[in-house]
Amino acid sequence: MAGDATTLDSTPLGVIHKSSPLPYYAQLAGILRDAIVAGLLTPGSALPSEAQLGASYQLSRTAVRQALGELAAEGLIRKEKGRGTFVREPRRADLVVQELRGFYDELTDRGYTVDTEVLSLQVLPSTADEATLLDVPTGSEVVRVERLRYADGAPICVTETVVLAARFPGLELRDLRGGSLYKVLREDYGVTVRGGHRMVEAVAADRVQARHLGVRVGSPLLKLSSINLDQDELPFELFTARYRADRTTFQITVTPNRGNT
User: Fold this and answer.
1) 164 contacts 236 by C-beta, under 8 angstroms
2) Of 87, 108, 205, 231, which residue is least crowded by CB atoms under 10 Å?
3) Does residue 142 register a pLDDT over 80?
4) Structure pTM?
């Protein structure tokens, strides 16, 4: 017989109604979904085991797994092998890949509070790959900036920006903890981003990235690589960002090919 379920602190969450035309698994998913939305199950908290949920709601293991699978597909929970099932942190960044704006401008326009921690800011010789992409001789000096970006207090991404030191003299002396880097490049150096090439791929967090972003080593990250062009369509910036996949989504707009009308 279906009955009440409880959280770990014995607070009732809801009831499975046997007479309802809604399948048992859908009812359980609805109860847990409502509890997550209401904040009764908080981000990062562990859900009872499948066996505990089954016993509390007097449901089969199959029904419980279906309910949890539905919530996982909705991005509300995550399963960790050997550890259990946890309520996901809410997504905090929704970024548009095509827009010619930086992280700060895009998220502040969406109402987020953005904070920045500068991890490294130094002038170094360019690598062969960097020199090729920036169209300069290998070893040309570049300013390399590594930053940890936050949205509403939560770490979202680790970024690396590489620009030519000769084109942006004194940039390594600037305080880049607040505001938009693109605003600095535009107002102080007369450089505006007009285009670029971007690539998104899935990668695993290494030990350093995991520590900065507050995730486990090997956790999925979304890596965005970009070569940005200035108003003269010359490459001026190499940009790489690794975003927490559980807190970030990318919007990509697909438009019809003019030849397919």
Assistant:
1) yes
2) 231
3) yes
4) 0.65
